[in-house]
Amino acid sequence: MKYTRALGETPKGTGDTEILRRAGAVLEAMIVNEEIFPDPLPSLEALQVAKDTYESRLAISSKTRGLQDISLKNEAKAALAYTLQKLAFYVNTVADGHLPTLYASGFRITSPAVKGQVPYSPSWIKGGDGHLSGSVNVDFQKVDGNNVAYEYCYAVTDDLDGVPAWGDIVHTRTTRKNIIDGLVPRTVLHIRVRAVNANGVSEWTPPIKHIVR
After folding, report:
1. Residue 25 Cα distances to 21, 111, 136, 178, angstroms
2. What pLDDT was estimated at residue 2?
3. Mean predicted lDDT score pLDDT of the chain
4. Which among 38, 127, 153, 188 is most buried, taking Cβ atoms within 10 Å?
5. pLDDT > 50? residue 101
6. Distance (Å, rounded) from C-alpha 103 to C-alpha 36?
7. Residue 24's closest CA among 93, 91, 80, 92?
């Protein structure tokens, strides 16, 4: 298998909300998994400051449309992108290609495509409140490759420490706004996802937990 790593680069043209989402995903994952990444460099505090600064300057420039504010926003975006790139280098050093460690970082995972290879697992999942009480919206990373579909399954427990009993597998081709409804408010929804192509299925992602509203 080709060497797999966390992707910290921010391609030119990456949208404002996308880089903020990526930074937020990394922060959340690395805080939860601090025992795996005990001494991040740059620190998570530095990433939080870079994210907050960019978010603030983005809000100001969106209102004023002033050239100075736009320039400050672009400067803050570049600083956030650089912080993510440096942090990905740290993650790759710690992980040394170990997939579970890479997934724990919240970074997107990349590897050169190999003909006939089963897809990689999505590197992140996000649960959000649906429009109605008792519904949850599920988003996850798009996996590179041709004709990739996805499967997810979920379980409901009464508390965060409950052991999930996984239900039926749901097939989907979209990575956004997969709605699970008919849930009981204040229960805990456990969700996991895997990718599928003609060559087989990926490993299940580590499950996430979301409290139903």
Report:
1. 6, 20, 18, 19
2. 43
3. 90
4. 127
5. yes
6. 11
7. 80
Question: How many C-alpha atoms does 91 have within 13 Å on its Cβ side?
Answer: 30
Residues 6+ apart with CB under 8 A from 122: 140, 141, 142, 143, 150, 175, 193, 194, 195, 205
User: For residues 181 and 130, is the Cβ–Cβ distance under 8 A?
Assistant: yes
Model's pTM, two decimal places?
0.53
Amino acid at 145: G
Which residues, other chains included, contact 138 with Cβ-Cβ below 8 Å and sequence gap of 6+?
Answer: 125, 126, 127, 128, 152, 178, 179, 180, 191, 193
Nearest 5°: CA angle at 206, between 203 and 212? Answer: 130
For residues 110 and 200, give the distance between their C-alpha atoms in angstroms, rounded to a whole number. 18
Helix, strand, coil tally for the chain in percent (to 5): 35, 20, 45
The DSSP annotation for 147-197 comes to: T-EEEEEEEEESSTTPPP-----EEES-SS-EEE-SPPTT-EEEEEEEEEE
**What CA–CA distance (Å, rounded) separates 95 from 93?**
6
The DSSP secondary structure of 6-53, one letter per residue, reads EE----TT--HHHHHHHHHHHHHHHHHTTTTSSS-SS-HHHHHHHHHH
Residues 6+ apart with CB under 8 A from 161: none
- The predicted model gives 114-140 an average pLDDT of 89
Tally Cβ neighbours within 10 Å of residue 173.
9
